[in-house]
Amino acid sequence: MNEWILKASGLTKRFYLHDRQREIPSTLAVDLELRPGELLAITGPSGAGKSSLLKCIWRTYLPSGGRILLRAADGSVTDLATADAQRILALRRGEMGFVTQFLHCLPRKSALDVVAAPLVDSGTLPAAARDAAAALLARLNVPEHLWTVAPATFSGGEQQRVNLARGLIRPVRLLLLDEPTASLDPLSRERAVGLLRELKARGTAMLAILHDAALVAALADGEVRVESQPQAQPEEAAA
Questions:
Q1: Residue 211 in contact with residue 182, Cβ under 8 Å?
Q2: What are the beta bridge partners of residue 227?
Q3: For residue 70, what are the β-bridge partners?
Q4: Rounded Cα gap, residues 157 and 31, in angstroms
Q5: Quick one: DSSP state of residue 222?
Q6: Is the pLDDT of residue 230 over 70?
Q7: What is the DSSP pairing of strand 14-17 with strand 39-43?
Q8: pTM for the complete prediction?
Q9: Which residues are CB-neighbours of 133 under 8 A, at least 6 positions away?
Q10: Could you give the CA distance from residue 177 to residue 63 in angstroms, rounded to a whole number?
């Protein structure tokens, strides 16, 4: 049996508003275990801390408690909750990928170069990276006449397809996805699901925020339910 790639225990995130001396609870005591080729769906009500969970694993946020163990390709295990910045950056370059909910990129950069950038950054020749980017954009139903245009001018669905292509173009062992198909039309969604299935078949482990029950049924091997936490009262937070 394949060993786990990602294991979290008691993963918790809280935010503290210093100006109001108030603590805002987010993700509460999440446990999960993810193996190669598996996709775990993160589900739960709005505001329960689903995106915070992914950001703690990616280390955009520093967790408030718990452990997040990542097993790298060389067998080494890192606790993402306590690792230093250099180790986190190294793991992002070699082991992890993140498809965020919204596309963020340089305003004048073409869609083709936005998608090709992760490959170029990892050492692929620009021409080969652009060829791979073109193939992925075509698969995700992005019209060819838009490839040389900056995505800032695109519709929300077109931007999400570019965002998804950028996140999927570089092979990684662990892929985090925040509502990857939320704004896609039916054809683009079908193609995105096909790409995710291909990644699963190649052994990529995925953790994805999914709201659509049909999508969970089509892709997920398990589910991590994140529940809302009761908010602490000001006097409790200050104690």
A1: yes
A2: none
A3: 6, 78
A4: 33
A5: E
A6: no
A7: unpaired
A8: 0.88
A9: 112, 113, 115, 116, 119, 165, 169
A10: 19
- For the chain, the straight-line distance linking the first and the last C-alpha, in angstroms and rounded, comes to 47
In this prediction, residue 229 has a pLDDT band, given cuts at 50, 70 and 90, of low
Q: 207 — phi, psi (to 5°)? A: -125, 115
Any idea what the Cα angle at residue 68 is, between residues 224 and 180, rounded to 5°? 50
CA pair distance 141, 20, nearest whole angstrom: 47
CA nearest to 169, candidates 140, 212, 209: 140
Query: What's the Cα-to-Cα distance from 35 to each of 39, 78, 201, 203, 217, rounded to whole Å?
Result: 8, 16, 12, 9, 18
pLDDT digits 0-9 by tens, 92-133: 999 999 998 888 877 789 999 999 999 999 899 999 999 999
Question: What was the pLDDT predicted at 236?
Answer: 42
Task: Report the candidate in 54, 64, 62 with the shortest Cα–Cα distance to residue 34.
Answer: 54
Question: Encoding tokens for residue 52?
Answer: 């915070």
Q: pLDDT at position 18, please?
A: 62
DSSP state of 179: S
